[in-house]
Amino acid sequence: MDLIYVGIGGAFGSIVRYKLGKIIAQKSGSDFPVNTFLINITGAILLGVVVGIGVSGSVYCLLADGFLGAYTTFSTFMYEGFQLFRENEKKNAFVYIAASLVIGIIGYIMGYELSRCLVFI
């Protein structure tokens, strides 16, 4: 049954990522991959919240493994980072990769800590 929850969450997560990514890319008008960066950071924050509030079992499969697993994208992150290197945008590539990792970790921690505070309210 958990596979069904992962599949449902994954379907919705990938659709949201695709649509939101297109909107962000159009609005930013930048060669910098702002869309993937923002989606991955918000995904890290949301995963921190999901873990922090203690979601488990089938709901975890739906939200974390399914939705957030499909919403965030490591493969696109790697592709875009290395495309920047190939296009001789070394500074942007370094900033993109380093900021994604550092801010992603900070985002996860912030989401986790925020959710832990909200649980006690």
Key phrases:
single chain, 121 residues, mainly alpha, 5 helices, globular
Summarize the structure.
By secondary structure, the protein is mainly alpha-helical.
Q: What can you see in these coordinates?
A:
- The protein is 86% helix and 0% strand.
- With 121 residues, it is mainly alpha-helical.
- α1 runs antiparallel to α2, α1 (2-28) packs parallel to α3 (57-71) and α2 runs parallel beside α5 (90-119).
- 33% of the residues are buried.
Oligomeric status? single chain
Q: Which whole number gives the mean pLDDT?
A: 94
Uncertain regions: pLDDT < 50 for 5+ in a row?
none
- Please write the string of helix (H) and strand (E) elements: HHHHH
Number of helices: 5
> How far apart are the first and last residues' alpha carbons, in Å?
33 Å
Main beta sheet, described? none
Number of strand segments: 0
Secondary structure elements and pairings:
Layout (H helix, E strand, L loop, with lengths): L1 H27 L5 H19 L4 H15 L2 H13 L3 H30 L2
